[in-house]
Amino acid sequence: MTDTKTTKHRLRSQDWFDNRDHVDMAAIYLERFMNYGITPEELRSGKPVIGIAQSGSDLTPCNRHHVDLARRVRDGIRDAGGIPIEFPTHPIFENCKRPTAALDRNLAYLGLVEILYGYPLDGVVLTTGCDKTTPSALMAASTVDIPAIVLSGGPMLDGWHDGDLVGSGTVIWRSRRKLAAGAIDEEEFLQAAMDSAPSIGHCNTMGTASTMNALAEALGMSLTGCAAIPAAYRERGQIAYRTGRRAVELVLEDIRPSHILTRQAFLNAIRVNSAIGGSTNAQPHLMAMAKHAGVALEPDDWQRYGYDIPLLADVQPAGRFLGERFHRAGGVPAIMRELLEAGKLDGSCPTVTGRTMAQNLEGRAASDREVIRSYDAPLKERAGFLVLKGNLFDFAIMKTSVISEEFRQRYLSEPGREGIFEGRAAVFDGSEDYHARINDPALGIDERTILVIRGAGPLGWPGSAEVVNMQPPDHLLRRGVTSLPTIGDGRQSGTADSPSILNASPESAAGGGLAWLRTGDIIRIDLEHGRCDLMVAQEEIERRKADGIPAVPADATPWQRLYRQTVTQLSDGAVIDGAADFRRIAETPPRH
Ligand code: FES
Ligand code: MG
């Protein structure tokens, strides 16, 4: 049964299918859709045409179950009186795409913009999951500004190995250290990794995938509670159906991303990111989404609004549990409810439900206080990102929720100099150089050394790579030193538990201060004042500039060249320079 609804405003799809001034063109637009059962009569009846942006495929296994979920989305769209049209998006598989999936985010964005703009779509369901699939989809939805709703795919079930919870990514970083220290062999390493992936879904830790889907919900772009439902749960199919239904209503009500993605919504997302112990990749992605939404978000907003927020979610890598427990404890709505009651959330923000965020959160208190803490009794106080600057870079972030007590004691607790650390730099040009030399005794790495990697930013890698969470040399690991301070112009995996200084902008390849650093230089980190400086005289730095910027690999594909010609720095979201000038482009129909 279909309850056909109509709307007061003329749908943009009617400009294709029901255009009386261009009957010849309408005929051409209409005829081929009959091949899969959509009749010209139906297409001309004024029913909303809803795209399903399909991000799942064999090349994006984290999202692959969207291929099945889309059937439920279609049912929802049909039952609400809409016409579903499913189409593929450019695949982005975090773990497999070389030289990095980050290179593909802007490409997927461009592709989706062209599809949403150039085809007869009135609204879109954005299927998301693996890290960059979420920001690329939301960036495109903002640029085009047709009604859009996020359907995340959900995390995998909890993984277990040897009686312990093992989470995506985090198990790799932890097993790597055990392998280097000789505590496990390669066989066990592989088995622990396999055990961390027990079902369909995206990473089950609070890595970049879980983070970005949580933030999509925090922004108001998905149904309440959507982000945390595990991929294999019955509820996942149910919310897919409801998301399809709601997409049709969004078109009828003309609720568009530009109504929802306000500065207040982005500040809410920054605060939620701190409370969930979210990925450091949220910084460039949220910034990119804000740019395309036309929202003025400053790099410093991460510290201004996010740093004081406590850690509430006891989820790996900052905590202990994984996606299933987080969902059962109440998921993102329970976190947001804590923030709302503490006066740290703007509850008036509109959302895709058609209600305000505060209305969505009614009755959504946490049900398991072991996993989701109350605001007054958090896991950690002040758990957001610190923003650092100095003569090495204008901007970098540090995720404070993963600073262990042991690390704090070792590096940041010298009496009278709390939060200050000075160490000798060991500098690596890219990860090949790191792997080749980290165990080289000539570098003299000890527990006072700061590991630095450069050539890992958007221009340098290219794409910006998750390589800054470098582990110490084997001789230190064997002595129990599991992390050294690290700095880099690349990123680190959202599943990593190292307190690195990341996303340094401008990067070395753009002539940032890291380019002039040499092994043996002293670096001074002052967390209290948000500084990170190279303790070398300015004349000496000037002299080194004559040596030129450290070399980076040549472009290997046409896109790499275009990407490098257009990309901005991580502090600005590594977006395509100038693309943010294009906003709400669907308001002007494309020519025939
Ligand atoms: Fe795809 Fe983590 S690798 S979600
Ligand atoms: Mg990653």
From TrEMBL:
Superkingdom of this protein's organism: Bacteria
Membership in a protein family: Belongs to the IlvD/Edd family.
Record protein name field: IlvD/Edd family dehydratase
Gene Ontology molecular function, alphabetical: lyase activity
Organism taxonomic ancestry: Bacteria, Pseudomonadati, Pseudomonadota, Alphaproteobacteria, Hyphomicrobiales
Enzyme class, first EC level, given as a word: lyase
Domain Dihydroxy-acid/6-phosphogluconate dehydratase C-terminal as annotated: residue spans: 370-574
Span of domain Dihydroxy-acid/6-phosphogluconate dehydratase N-terminal: 47-360
Pfam families to which the protein is assigned, alphabetical: ILV_EDD_C, ILVD_EDD_N
E.C. designation(s): 4.2.1.-
InterPro entries associated with the record: Dihydro-acid_dehy_C, ILV_EDD_C, ILV_EDD_N, IlvD/EDD_N, Sugar_Degrad_Dehydratases
Keyword annotations: Iron, Iron-sulfur, Lyase, Metal-binding, Plasmid
Annotated source species: Shinella oryzae
